[in-house]
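Thymidylate kinase
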Amino acid sequence: MDNAGNRPDGAGVFITFEGGEGAGKTTHIRFLAKALEGLGYSVLMLREPGGTELGEALRALVLDPAYGPVSPRCEMLIYEAARAQLVDEVIKPALVAGKIVLCDRFTDSTEAYQGFGRGIDREQVRTANAFAADGLVPHATLLLRCEGAAEGLVRATHHGSADRLEQAGLDFHQRVELGFGQMCRESDGRIRVIDTSGPKSLTAAQVFSALVDVVPALADSALFDEDYFSVLDVKAHG
């Protein structure tokens, strides 16, 4: 799918990674970035909320359980504020410069978590998303799906204490998971599902294959063969 009209000048490529808690986005973003850099691309890895000084401060604020219950509308607007700063300060300039931008979460997460999860009207979420992103739409979005919301939460929290979203409960995360699935079915091909239930090497191969239309060099089977991906199976899941 060609979304060149949504690029500041048609030069860069904007790829987002979505999914529930513990889906392994970090592992596969880093692995993809290393491969792209090896091909000679300039790559920028980002996360939401975050990626700017203001965004990281807002991230710490909105995810800290110490602040207690947060209004769903307040929560959504904090994410949108961080996004607006990230788009203007980092993403759009990077795309103008011809970089490949890999972002851990973007507008789809807000629709899934605050729309389906918190119950905010989806049209209101989409309007806020479009305003904060200034109309920017990813050229491709990979939806990483693990065994289920419960398994994902176990993965996400086994390293230490859970953040406020991770503490939201299984029912909430199941709504988020169902929301991602519905959004994928409604999409025009931008959102591509990646099954993470098997070995990480197979997941990575799916990631590369799913992005061939936006980064054709990833189709090089001589370079990206089974041995290339197998290194992931001896590393911890991210």
